[in-house]
Design goal:
alpha/beta, Rossmann fold, two-stranded antiparallel ribbon, 7 helices, 30% helix, globular
Amino acid sequence: MNIVVCLKQVPRDNTVAITANHAIDASGIEPIINLFDEYALEAALQLNDTHGGTVTVLSLGDDEWQDQMRRAMAMGATDALLVQADAQYDLFSAAQIIANAIRHLGMPDVVMCGRNATDDESAALAPMLARLLGWPQVTYVTAITASDATSLTAVRQLEDERETVQVTLPAVLSIAKGEQEPRFPSLLRVRKFAKQVIPTVTIADIGAPSAPAVQIIDRVPPAARKGGEIIAGADVAAKVAALVDRLIADQAL
């Protein structure tokens, strides 16, 4: 089974700056693999461990992203492809580029994405890829088994129920947190792939996206959270009374 896993690089924390043209500036913040994409990679590796095949990690970004792709290969991915891009694309444009890259790779059996990215929280990449590729999709997947060479059985964790579905391949899956945590690469494998050359293509090589239909007209960082307040008092009863008085004054009670 040949699987492509889409990876996104995100900042480790949300202390980012907003540029004059409304782009996110994460300079100086450690980049990491999006957590849900690591769950997707782990799901792909488990299928690969059981059934064989290939696991190709695919991403869109600049050369800085190669270090995280090397980490993914140290975790067990067999191949990688980086679509070189310096600009920040809207989500649909990015989905078009990634769909073109998947076609460039030769159309796998399965494409996996994380449930959502921790920076934009859109959860829309997998549905967009399914539409662009013309494939069925299954979202919020927490467990996968291969039914046979032509289908997968997937468990979906919904808000108040767990659903089991069978999907015909090829298909797009978005992966949520399941029972298995992403594996840690061994030090030996980290060293092995430390200088791995990651294959790259340009957007011109695979096809440019259409003009963006959605444009960000404003973006502001979240308001800083106020610090906590310690309620003083001679004893617990006095502190509780002072707290109640404060909540009433703030119209919270």
